[in-house]
């Protein structure tokens, strides 16, 4: 029925343009619709009759259910106030459906068109709809004869309602809900003459009183006590709930009805007076009650948590506390959504209900686990126990068991031999029996009855608003977990007669539970990462680059604290403490069939935020090619991780898993969100900035210092290469990227190497014929003199091989850093005898390639680079045969060997003793020749030593011929070039001596040293 009145979920037929004339005709003629003679008006209905029947059946049957509810149960309304309220609420709801006539008439037309007769219930249903066009008028007529019964039932609430509507001051003076106000009586059982009424919802009583006297208003002018009860109720609320979110505006509806009746002028004045009283006082009245309950229930929870045995004798207090909290929360929800104009809006926008709800849920959590048979029996005194056991023994004779209301019914009829009102003690015992029976048999039902907050399912805007206010109030953050936990109550809104609502309510519950937990996890992770950022700032001040600033500070200056900064940090720590309490309050809870773990939400957000924080710390800018030094990033990451690890026992999340997952994602090119990681950033930066400038001669590799060094250039602003490539930086880079990240870096380096090899092969193919002749006649000086000038692109070959050498040298430095990190972590203990192993398997390169790959992943150096072998193997093409590829590889070494003398003509080919290298990085050619040759001939399954020996022979002949040159331009720096051939891991010293006598190498060292010092003397003198 609520669906019918919702514009968003109206049946589609009511919105179609083609049906508009038919709907107007049905509404006009209702209920007497001539289907057979009105084809002109009902043509669209005839065409869509099947679809109309299918779609409107549930709606029509709902209206029929309302009619049947009225006909079958009306006689019992005098005894059941709930039935009166439910019946009246349904009628009010029915009257609010504007399209009720159209829906019923449209369905009946389609029914008659399809089956040839009207629905059997249509005549009575249409009559009822017409009668209840003005529901209050009809309802008051129907209930007029029952005024005495209804008013009698309502007057039985008088003293209870007065007591339940006391203010906070009266509660405080009576020390309501306090277990410690009278220590000697702490273990005495809490009893009442009306046990079940003590936790009866006030809203339920208000509905009974307002609707009861609305229908049976005759007693208000004749019974003073009825009038007092009615006025007291009018002064309590502006709105009462009909069904779910539908409310009744109490004063307006009552005033409209009484204004139309004669003799009710004074009652109308009472209504206006009560309305003014409610508007002026009720907000503050309930605000004070909420404040009292926050303190009283917190005390009660503390005592019961410490002494759960008191739940037995004081179980009534527990249920009263739950009921009182529920009353205040539902009153606030009901009024905050409907009251728009008030002088004290703060009374309806309380930021403290979450604390009440949290105490409510905490109180709820300790009840089912400890309230059992032992505690219940311990609450009975000696006089009550025999009577109860006798009564239970009598009830056990009934099969099936005697319902709880049946004895009351037997003692309340007119001709009963025993009248209950004449035996109040029996009524008290029966109340006591019912309460303790429910404590034994259905504690869960009692908990639902006293603690159901499912009303939030139908006041989602208020629910979300309260949650937002909670997050803005630091003192309320610890109670924020109440909001997702309340979503578990939404399951109580479902009903077995409305299964179609279940998916909708389930969706609401899960969606809001998820959104609340997501927001709480987000707030917590933001707070954690903000504090981490401050910890990182503190750790950064300890870096060596800030030592001068630290030392230069005046004494006692470190004792001065920045007030604003300290306040911000204090606020962050307070918020984190509160959020940690709320996220760690409960391990898990259920929402419909789903089990929810708050810690998993926090872990997920922490992981994502930590990932973003690490990327932010790297500070990579693709435009300006700026990035943080690996050592500085590592120090920042350690500061973050250290603080997060210190929170492990407070957050409730698996911090170790969070850190492990975040760091592991940073070793991959992309994280789980598809964003680039520091592995990608550093790979791009080292390739695009450092190695590109090293290839162009701006940066040189210094083997002596084991780092790249930037050469000073006037007018150029660039980074200092040594700050990003020394031993400590490579070690920090390896620790950040890990084996996976270093493997990704190596693969990208190898891609650039193979791109150079492809170009080198093209040059070899262009000079194929000449190189073949040179390979056969390299020892014939006359023939070589004519062949060498025919070579094209010799300078290009040397340049590309130098680039390859620079890249491989950088990779070797990175691998060394990885080896030191891995060795320090005990990762390489299985490779302690790696050198002896590699010597034993020296000739089995192809067999041991997988072992080389394992060693390379740990940073251990290998004679054959498995990454380079894999990259070159992927270059194989179908267009050329393996023999041709092998031939090109052999000629490439020949091409390089005969091109080496050309380096002597380059002014940059100057050997620096301090750097232990050349200004144009040609000292990297050695590594390029060795690594590329080893990889190429491993791929082609050929002997590496044989081909390197051939290269050494050809290179020695070329360089020795250089020694006989008389042209000073060609012989410039020739001593430096000779140093290139001093060592090879694949060649023995005997082989090297046979080609390059050691005396030549010694003379080369002496000559370059003398030249270096001669060049420095003028500079020093100047």
Automatic annotation (TrEMBL):
Please give one Pfam family short name.
Nckap1
Which GO cellular component term is one of those annotated? SCAR complex
Where does the secretion signal sit in this chain?
A: none
Highest rank taxon of the organism: Eukaryota
What's an example Gene Ontology biological process for this entry? cell migration
Which PANTHER family does this UniProt record tie to the protein?
A: NCK-ASSOCIATED PROTEIN 1, NCK-ASSOCIATED PROTEIN 1-LIKE
Recorded protein name is NCK associated protein 1 like
Gene expressing this chain: NCKAP1L
